[in-house]
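Exercise 7.
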Amino acid sequence: MKSSRLLSILLLLQTRGRMTAAELARELEVSVRTVYRDAEALSAAGVPLYGDAGHSGGYQLLAGYRTRLTGLHAGEAEALFLTGMPGPAAQLGLGRALSAAQLKLRAALPPELRAQADRMRLRFHLDAPGWYAEHEETPYLAQVADAVWRGRVIDVRYRRWRAPQEVERRLAPYGLVLKAGRWYLVAAPAGTPGPDGTHGPDGTREARTYRVDQILRVTETAGESEPELPEGFDLAAHWQRTQADFHARLYPEEAVVRLSARGAAGLTGVQARALAATGEPDPELPGWTRATLPIESEARAEGQFLSLGADAEVLFPTALRDRVRSTLAAMAARYA
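Solution. The predicted structure, written as tokens, is:
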């Protein structure tokens, strides 16, 4: 709707300052010509909006102009209250701030939207952790979050899975991520570069991921801070790449299998997605599906496919098929 788009332009300029017509068009997913027409409509309505031509030009609002929170429709008001996650906010020390912000937002809404927002809050609750995940203590979460917010370098003692298990690291925090109820710190090695111009014990300056519940001690370095985030760094994009790399390392091999409908229903996660992407009707068994699935290793895949019983058959690689056949023969002999 045009009215919603006009308000979006107003709020974008209010929060970001000067923006070109092309930038506004990309943000709103409309044409540049539409942005020109909308800018004229805002000016005609009395909004102090002006534009400068040239390479460094763009649209911006008159200095000091602010608009009140208006123009929300029902879905937007409901979505704002649905984003409230009191558990993680409290862990970060922002529980009271979140409650205060929601109270102010609710007071600013018209009565009819206020009622719909209250209905959303009462009927929906977001609980991030999985059912079987144990609660993990994160005593240094607030301290780490403060360092992230202020861009301060920290010294941490960190427990990892390989030897030596406890290591000392000086880190420049980039951001925090909450994934399935577990907090992760994205940070890069900090400090003065070594003789070869690199950082860190392994000679890298790339951002890495640290589980906050495995941090054993945090000390903020006296007066030491890092510059702004590296140019072009985006936390959400970095996290997506990290997950993709993790899955690629976790499932480095593949197996061709055929599955009954019940066997296919027994797959989860990355294998279920691979089944949906590569699955085709099996040419030899009507009603069965043949697919190429990622596996961690032949040893792990053997147990997994055996757990599906007669509803799965490994076709390739031959070594994995032979492992399954050998185990089945031993089981048959045992039960005979």
